[in-house]
Specification:
Bound molecules: adenosine-5'-diphosphate
Radius of gyration: 38 Å
Number of domains: 3
Oligomer: single chain
Number of helices: 10
Order of helices and strands: HHHHHEHEEHEEHHEEH
Structural class: alpha+beta
Strand content: 5-15%
Distance between the termini: 52 Å
Strand order of the largest sheet: 2-4-5-7-6
Length: 377
């Protein structure tokens, strides 16, 4: 790559100014060198002829030569700087045109808009890269929004259809408005309101608008609380839960939201582990993080589905998972909550029937003792 291609904007401007100064200096030197000796010669001859003092002739010759050299040098520098300015302006205008076009294309809703590096310095190349990244992000947000609306419409269709069918049947006298009909209709209404609450929550969490009541908490308390809350239901399903956690795992977090993530992971473990299975919950301290893993010995997740379980509305087995009331948003909410805390939530599974492990990692809050190294484990 040529030096000019790698030079930053400041270097390029310096080169341009140096060029103008150089042209002016060269013009001054050229004029001085070509006109000066002639002028001196002529004045000295005149001094001999007229008998005037050679000193005053030499001074006049010097004044005339330097005035001429300076004027021509200034004029040349002016012309050179005008030329260089026009060239620079044209080059910058040409480089900015793709940005204007790209911004217009983004504004009219086009996706996958990219701007290639204009090649007039790393500053402009960085702006081009940032613009392309922004356009890609916008396209992604727009895609997600479109898919979300489509998924939402799809999710609402079934409960609404069931409600409409029952209302019509009751209206026509085909069905009686007895307890069982009421129960079915109520279940559909509950499903719709849960869907609405979940969508509102995941949207605000992913937009970073989730209200978090953060303060230093011990993860041990939250882990044991969530396990205690779920243990009866796990036992009813024939599952055994083991909890390994000890006090002293401090994080700056909203205990309700972290509790919600853990409850969701435990509910999923219950729903996807056959009776007789085991659910292990373990909280461990790492250098900069506290990690909580929820492992089950259940049905596992196929490798191709692993990256998708955190997608909104994704369910491995749509019919079966929908039957147990899931809308496929639980893990999206859980991950959004983890991210809002500056943490991560990842899933691992060796494959179908091999169980699953979900790991929640949160930035660890160091105590004074940790910092001084006294209590470092
Ligand atoms: P839902 O709210 O419907 O349970 P989630 O977002 O919590 O949805 O989970 C998405 C999908 O990921 C589930 O439908 C299920 O197919 C899969 N999944 C979640 N947890 C587990 C698990 N522990 N074992 C196997 N599959 C799981």
């Amino acid at each position: 790559m040529a030096l000019a291609d790698r030079a930053d904007l400041a270097t390029r401007l310096l080169i341009a100014i140096a060029l103008v100064v150089g042209v002016g200096a060269a013009a001054a030197w050229a004029v001085g060198a070509t006109v000066g000796p002639g002028l001196f010669h002529e004045h000295l001859l005149r001094a001999v002829d007229t008998g005037e003092s050679p000193t005053s002739h030499a001074e006049r010759a010097y004044a005339a030569a330097s005035a001429l050299a300076l004027s021509i040098a200034l004029l040349t520098a002016l012309v050179a700087s005008a030329g260089v300015s026009v060239l620079i302006a044209r080059r910058i205008r040409r480089s900015l045109a793709p940005f204007a076009q790209a911004a217009h294309r983004v504004a009219i809703g086009e996706r996958n808009v990219t701007v290639s590096p204009p090649g007039i310095g790393p500053e402009f190349d960085r702006v081009a890269a940032a613009f392309t990244a922004m356009a890609t992000d916008l396209a992604h947000v727009e895609d997600t929004r479109t898919h979300m609306l489509a998924d939402l419409a799809h999710e609402m269709r079934t409960p609404l259809a069931v409600l409409a069918a029952y209302l019509e049947a009751v209206g026509d006298g085909v069905e009686r408005l007895d307890e069982s009909t009421m129960h079915i209709m109520q279940a559909q209404v509950e499903r719709l309101s849960r869907l609405s609450a979940d969508v509102a929550l995941v949207t605000s969490a992913q937009e970073g608008r989730l209200s978090l009541d953060r303060h230093p908490i011990d993860v041990d308390t939250v882990v044991k609380g969530a396990a205690a809350q779920e243990s009866d239901r796990l036992a009813e399903c024939g599952l055994t839960i083991h909890v390994r956690s000890a006090p002293g795992l401090l994080v700056d977090a909203d205990p309700d939201r972290i509790g919600q993530v853990l409850t969701n992971l435990l509910e999923n473990a219950r729903q996807h582990t056959p009776p007789g299975g085991v659910v292990d919950v373990e909280a461990t301290a790492e250098v900069d993080a506290v990690r909580v893993t929820v492992h089950d010995s259940g049905e596992g997740i196929a490798p191709q589905d692993l990256p998708r379980v955190f997608d909104r509305f994704f369910r491995v087995d749509v019919a079966r998972d929908r039957a147990h009331g899931g809308s496929g948003i639980g893990l999206s909410i859980a991950r959004a909550i983890a991210t809002a805390h500056g943490g991560t939530l990842v899933a691992e599974s060796e494959g179908l029937s091999m169980g699953s492990t979900f790991s929640l990692s949160l930035p660890r809050l160091r105590t004074e003792l940790d910092r001084t190294g006294v209590a470092e484990k």
